[in-house]
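Hmm, how's this folded?
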Amino acid sequence: MYTQKLFYETNAPKRHRLFEKDDNKCPKWEESYQRLKAQYDKNGIIGLLGNRGGGKTQASVVIIAMNSKKGKKGHYTKAQEVFLNIRDAQGGGENGLVATFEKYTKPDLLIIDAFQVRSGTEFEYRTLVTILDKRYDNMKPTILISNDTPEVFADAMGDDAYSRMQEGGGIIQFNSEDFRGQQ
């Protein structure tokens, strides 16, 4: 089990904190996780795609733990939270737009879960793409988790962000059986 401090600092979901990678009973998940681990070191944008319950979020939390053990900061969030923070900053919320932008560009690793749930304005979408672009420029790994198909995901990313994802990142499919029932 990982330390509580590690997860408080990264915002990793409590549900996934208790997982011990060595207790995994799903070989297909392990294969996908190993591909993620290899791609993560290339400091690109990675899309984790697959069915609900395939272990995408769990794999990302294991990467957060690995990242933190190396003394690097990570941040886990949901796509809708990113849009809400951008909207709040635009409306004069307590955090300005620059502070909100830095919240997502500063960590060594950023994980945005539920990427398929996106309902922002054009400005919010462009801000998200700019966050991804800035992280790409600074060679900071970003993991996007989605239940979308590769085609829908590529379309949602847009041509520029998807093109950047192809260098040092790419798509990793998590097609294991329902991971939730096999841990």
